[in-house]
Each structure stands twice: as C-alpha cells, then as structure tokens.
Amino acid sequence: MAFNMNGLLKTPAKTAGFLLLFSLFLTVAPALGQTLGGNGSAEQGVRTVTLSLSEAIRTALDQSLDIQDARLALKQAEEQVSEAWGSVMPTIDFTGSYTRNIAPAVSFLPAEFFGGEAGEFIKVQFGADNSWQSALTLNQPLFEATAFIGVGAAGRYKALQMETLRGRAQNLVTRVRLAYYSLLLAQEDRRLIENSVDRVRRSLDETEALQRAGFSSEYDVLRLQVELANLEPNLRRTANAVSQARRNLALELNLDGMETLEVTGSLAAMEPESLDANDVANREILELMGVRDAVFEEPDRVLEAAYEARSDLRQLDLTEKLRTAELRVQQVDYLPRVSLFGNYSVNAQQNGRPNFFGDELTRATSKWVGVQISLPIFTGFKRDARIDQQRAVLNQAKNQSQMARLQTESQVKSLLEQAQEALQRARGQRLAVTQAQRGFEIASAQYREGLSSQLELTDSEVALRQSEFNYAQAIFDFLVSRAQLDEAAGAVPMVNEAFRGSSALR
Question: Do the bridges between strand 337-350 and strand 130-143 make them parallel or antiparallel, or are there none, so unpaired?
C-alpha cells in the first residue's frame, strides 16, 4: 500500500489531521503490542503457569487458605499462653473520682450528744461541696497452684496447635501430590484417546482406498466408521476430565488462573525403578518421596517411624498431656491461695470553688499492706464432679491414642502392599505396551498387504490403547500409594523444610 504524501499535505487542515492520526497511532501501538504478546498473538496475552511438583507444593504451602487458618489457630494459642502468664503476675489498679455535692447530704443526730434536750435532733451536714477520692491497689499471687498449672496447660495447647499446623501442612502436600498425579493421569488418558482416533482415522483412510481399489469390503469401512464414532465423543470426556483435574489442583494451590495451569511430567514415560531412565520432570516426581525404596525390604522401620513422626499420633499424645494438665488444674483446686495486697489512697474534701485535691488541711492519705489466704472448704461436690469429668476425658484420650496406633499399623501395611502391587503391575504392563505396539505394527502391515482382516487390526489397536492406559494407571496407583504412605509414616517431603527456621514448628 502506497500513500500519496503530496495529496495529504496540500492543505494545512489535511496536514494537521495527518499529524493527529500519526500521534494517535504512536500512542495506541505500544499498548496494542503489549496486549497481543511478544509474537503479536492475542492468544499469547494469556499467561500460562507451568509448575513442577516441587513448585506446586511450595506454592500450596505459601498460599493455601488451609495453612493460613492453621497459622491463625497457632497465633491464638500463643496469645493464650501470654494470657495464662498474666494470671501469675502482679495486678496494679488505679481508681479516682471527683464529686460535686449540689446539696450535701445531712443526717439527724440526737441533741443530747451535743448537750441538748433528750428526744430532740440536730441536723448535721456530712461532706463538703467538692470531694476527691483516689486509690492505687496492688495484688500479687504468692501461691496459686491453679494459675501455675494453667500456664503449663496453655503451653501444652500451644504445642498441640503447632503439631496441628504440621499435620495440616502434611495433609495439604499429600492432597497436592494426589491432585497433581490425577492431572497427569487425565492428560495421559486424553493423549491415548487422541492417538487412537488418529490411528483409526488413518486405518479408515487406508480401508476406503482399498475399497475403491476393490480389495476391501464396505463392511470393513463401516466397522471403522463405527469405531471412530465411538471414540470421538471420548475426546470431549477426557478434555473435561483434564479441566476438572486442573481446577482441583488450582484450588489446592489457591490460584486464580485455573484454566492456564500446566504441569510437567508424563506417566507413560516414567520408569519408577530407575531414576536415570527418566527425564528431569519425572525424576523430580520420583525423588519427592519421604519414605525411600528401602521400606519394601524393611517395613518394620516404616512402622516405627510412623509411631514417632506421624502427625495425628503426635497430636493425640499432646492432647493426652493437655487433658492431664487440665485434670491437675481441677485437683489443685483443693489447695489454698495465698496473695499479697497493698493499697495507697488519697481523699480530699473542700468547700467553695474546686481546688484539685485541696490543700494539706483538707487532704488525707492512707496506706496498708497485707497477706490474704483463701481456702475453699465446701463447694457442694462441684470440684469432685469436675475432677471425675476430666478424668473420664483423659481416659477417652488414652483410648483414642491406642486405637490410632492400631489403625496406623493396619494402614501402613496396606499401603506398602498396594505400592508393591502397583509396582509389579507397572513392570508387567511395560512389557505389555512393548508387545502391543509391535503387534499393532504387524497387524497394520499385514492389513495393508491384505494378509489380515480389519477385525484383527481393530483388536490390535484396542489392545495397544488399553495396555498403554493400564501402564499409566499402574504408575498412578504406585505414586498415589507412595504419597499416602509418606503421610501415614509422617515423612511427607518438603513440609519440615518449608517451616524450618520459623516459629511455626519449633
């Protein structure tokens, strides 16, 4: 396109219009280019977030609302400890007041007190026009077992909340790992369906060509058309499954751009028994296992580690200690309370115009100190009832701990068996995929040469797709069981590392 500049610039009005359009173009072009992206594509303006498994875990630990909620609960527990310490510290109170007597109160005293006649009364005014009172009081507990044990109970509660935060972090990381693996499986299912559709379409094109040449029947064409029609709707199903898995992962990560989230790794290319045979993404997924491969030879060590490090067992143990401290609080209610107290007060009264606290003639001070002992004698059996209630709660916590240990043993052994079974299936399915791939190549070649039927070709394609999916499913089951085993053994990766150096898990 060529512009006739002479024609545009013949008149001042045209010249001004051209300059205006040119300046507008210079203003809009950078913004337009920024919107279109680096390659000038509007589609590239949408930023795609690609995360590895470790990046997804770190994102979840940093942004998850679940972790933020647990941190707030820990903050509340820390403040409760500070509040408990306040009960053993001295309390100092100051009070002050000023009263203006509009009509001072009067009392009637017997006149005989002042030398008058018996039976008569004399009106006497008490108080002045202005009255000031102030007092400074001090109270220091010297011996109050309930307060001191309450400080210990508050510390137990804080420790429980710290372990709760750790447990919720482990549970979050496990959920992220499972959501990540589910997305990989959904992507693999979609890829396999797409490959099957492509293979069937190529077979259909070849069969139609053979039919036109008179080497194939119309039934073979119809059979492939039916198979293609049955496969194509699965493309939409698998696409929806990928979108749903992507949304589930984004929710765990607390990310807004759910539809732009991508993950690295491939179940089909994963070799769980050889790290060197994997690419970087798959190697990272396999390395992020809190319980190493040696557990298959020493399952008893996994069980011992679970008893020591599993978060729910540690929470139950801390709960049991907390209930013991609460029982001690109720039991020491029988002991006396001893406290030191003191008071310093200033009072003043004065008539006429207010003079703050008057002068030396109208002002008086008082001071005293003392020790107070309080010993409850009888409270209507309330203390005994509270002690029995707290003892029942403590026994309940002990039973829960014992039951949880039994459940832990069963869960760890079951997950170990599931992981071993999935690994064995993966070994068998890897060989099946190789054989099915070779079988499909042979069937395709024989079909093109007219040595085999279309049914054999279809069967070989279905066998290939099924064996590939079975391998991906076996790898998925292995990864899921290992992630659950890590949580069951209290060895979830990246959790302690994420909180190391912070006060959250000290």
Answer: antiparallel
Do 329 and 273 share a structural domain? yes
In the three-class reduction of DSSP (H, G, I as helix; E, B as strand; rest coil), residue 361 is classed as coil
462 and 387 housed in the same domain: yes
Residue 18 pLDDT level (bands cut at 50, 70, 90): very low
d(CA 443, CA 220): 15
The answer, yes or no, to whether residue 56 has pLDDT greater than 60, is yes
Q: How many CA atoms are closer than 13 Å to the CA of 469, on its beta-carbon side? A: 17
Task: Give the pLDDT of residue 22.
Answer: 46
CB atoms within 10 A of CB 392: 12
Average pLDDT score over the chain:
81
The CA-based diameter of the chain, rounded to the nearest angstrom, is 150
Domain co-membership, 249 together with 321: yes
pTM, to two decimals: 0.73
Are residues 165 and 135 located together in one domain of the fold? no
398 located within any domain: yes
The DSSP code sequence of 239-303 is HHHHHHHHHHHHHHHT-S-GGGEEE---STT--TT-GGGS-HHHHHHHH--SS-GGGGT-HHHHH
Is 401 a member of any domain? yes
Beta-sheet pairing, 49-51 with 261-263: parallel
pLDDT in tens, 219-256: 878 888 888 888 888 889 999 999 999 999 999 988 87
Query: Of 16-25, 112-121, 155-164, 195-204, which range is least confident?
Result: 16-25
- Candidates 99, 100, 98, 96; CA nearest to 134 is 96
Specify whether 392 is located in the same domain as 263: yes
> What are the E-state strand segments in 112-210?
121-125, 130-143
- Phi/psi of residue 500, each to 5°? -65, 135
Phi, psi of 38 (to 5 degrees): -65, -35
Same domain, 74 and 204: yes
Report the number of distinct structural domains present in the chain: 2
**Residue 32 located in a structural domain:** no
CATH (domain of 159): 1.20.1600.10
Based on the fold, state whether residues 104 and 67 are members of the same structural domain.
Answer: no
Please enumerate in sequence order all residues whose Cβ is within 8 A of that of 502, keeping only pairs 6 or more positions apart, or say none. none
User: What does the block give as tokens for 310?
Assistant: 């599993």
Q: Determine the structural domain holding residue 223 and report its residue range.
A: 53-88+144-336+381-499
The Cα–Cα gap between 287 and 407 comes to 28
Side chain identity at residue 193, one-letter code: I
The answer to whether residue 492 is domain-embedded is yes
- Closest listed residue to residue 405, CA positions, set 505, 326, 490, 480: 490
Whether residues 366 and 398 share a domain: the answer is no
What does the buried/exposed string (b/e) look like for 204-235 if buried means 16 or more CB atoms within 10 Å of the residue's CB?
bebbbebeeeeebeeebbebbeebeeebeebe
Closest CA to 56 of 263, 289, 279: 263
pLDDT of 34 higher than 90: no
